[in-house]
């Protein structure tokens, strides 16, 4: 088959990752990079794409059948809708939108055009996810009482100044929602939801920040689904370091055993009561190549927009919750350079705290974190949120 023509919107930042993927697929004749939509010229070493800041015009000029949107979160909806209406399928970087209203605007364009929109949750391309779903469905783990998740990374102050929207909840009056739960650890929330069925009935949030930012860098959420299933995710960007031993994970708690998914490594560990730990590492399909296969042959999408709506309900709960609470500096370990500038903010014991949240399905305040306050509950009412303060 002829290569599928692709336009990349947003070639800097995470867009560089997409360029690497495009380079590999172009070398195999799967795609052709036909255009780049960016505010500045971009050098590409494997193609000579047309370039323009006008996405719809670029799609029309190049005849691109597929567009990758890898731009600031607050631009996702406008660009995805523009691409769809210009006749192009879309691979949309996560999070798909900063609010449920914006996501539904994209969904309306998908329905209107009949084209596909895949969301860039790479973890949903892992064969470990359906493998774990089978373990849950066939009763191997017994009755499941809940799913816990933990993630502990470190981020320097430069991470939050890398772009105008970094670390922001809003920018110029427009929702951004660049928080720990909704961006760097969005995969934890989305993957946990992919393991459990049922509508969301209640969301509890605790949002904090040690860095002097608007958004959260240390936060947790508890999601209650119809049927009683509980998901609790606790994350931080204030760990002492990013260690291979502390890569983010999900753990499914059953009364006959538990299964732990290291979703960044596609590693699944299963321990049944009284038995040894069985470890398997699974293959991962690329979401761009999956979308190309969908366009060519109708292959099912791995992360279709419709499957991510519950994730964006969680984003909405974070968006409408209390503003993140500052963590006083006396609870932090500040690392400084020779000039006295803060280069790292660490919350002592936070790695172990996130692990406890995942193990006990508890929130920070319930485990006695000295900087934590009680959660705010969001009840889902007719597709929106009503808060119990």
Automatic annotation (TrEMBL):
Domain GFO/IDH/MocA-like oxidoreductase positions: 131-259
Pfam families: GFO_IDH_MocA, GFO_IDH_MocA_C3
Annotated source species: Nonomuraea antimicrobica
SUPFAM superfamilies documented for this protein: Glyceraldehyde-3-phosphate dehydrogenase-like, C-terminal domain, NAD(P)-binding Rossmann-fold domains
Residue ranges occupied by any Gfo/Idh/MocA-like oxidoreductase N-terminal domain in the UniProt entry: 5-121
Residue runs in coiled coils: none
Protein's name according to its UniProt entry: Gfo/Idh/MocA family oxidoreductase
Record's keyword terms, sorted: Oxidoreductase
InterPro entries, alphabetized: Gfo/Idh/MocA-like_OxRdtase_N, Gfo/Idh/MocA_oxidrdct_glycsds, GFO_IDH_MocA-like_dom, NAD(P)-bd_dom_sf
Domain of life, per lineage: Bacteria
């Amino acid at each position: 088959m002829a290569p599928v023509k692709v336009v990349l919107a947003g070639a800097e930042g995470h867009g560089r990752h997409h360029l690497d993927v495009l380079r590999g697929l172009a070398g195999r004749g799967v795609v052709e990079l036909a255009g780049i939509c960016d505010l500045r010229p971009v050098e590409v070493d494997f193609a000579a794409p047309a370039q323009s800041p006008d996405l719809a015009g670029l799609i029309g000029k190049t005849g691109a059948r597929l567009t990758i949107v890898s731009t600031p979160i607050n631009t996702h909806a406008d660009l995805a809708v523009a691409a769809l209406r210009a006749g192009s399928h879309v691979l949309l970087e996560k999070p798909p939108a900063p609010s449920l209203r914006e996501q539904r605007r994209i969904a309306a364009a998908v329905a209107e055009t009949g084209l596909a929109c895949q969301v860039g949750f790479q973890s949903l391309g892992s064969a470990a996810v359906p493998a774990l779903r089978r373990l849950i469905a066939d009763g191997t783990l017994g009755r499941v009482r809940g799913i816990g998740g933990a993630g502990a990374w470190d981020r320097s102050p430069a991470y939050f100044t890398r772009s105008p929207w970094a670390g922001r909840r809003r920018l110029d009056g427009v929702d951004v929602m660049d928080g720990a739960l909704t961006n760097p650890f969005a995969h934890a929330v989305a993957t946990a939801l992919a393991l459990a069925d049922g509508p969301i009935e209640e969301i509890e949030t605790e949002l904090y920040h040690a860095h002097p930012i608007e958004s959260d860098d240390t936060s947790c959420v508890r999601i209650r689904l119809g049927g009683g299933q509980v998901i609790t995710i606790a994350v931080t960007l204030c760990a002492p370091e990013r260690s291979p031993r502390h890569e983010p994970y999900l753990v499914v708690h059953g009364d006959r055993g538990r299964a732990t998914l290291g979703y960044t490594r596609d590693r699944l560990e299963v321990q049944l009561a009284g038995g040894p730990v069985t470890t398997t590492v699974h293959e991962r399909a690329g979401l761009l190549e999956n979308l190309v296969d969908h366009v060519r042959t109708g292959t099912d999408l791995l992360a279709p927009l419709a499957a991510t709506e519950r994730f964006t309900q969680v984003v909405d709960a974070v968006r409408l919750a209390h503003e993140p609470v500052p963590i006083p500096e006396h609870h932090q370990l500040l690392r400084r350079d020779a000039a006295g500038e803060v280069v790292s903010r660490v919350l002592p014991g936070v790695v172990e705290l996130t692990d406890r949240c995942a193990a006990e399905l508890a929130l920070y305040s319930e485990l006695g974190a000295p900087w934590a306050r009680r959660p705010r509950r969001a009840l889902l009412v007719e597709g929106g949120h009503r808060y119990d303060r």
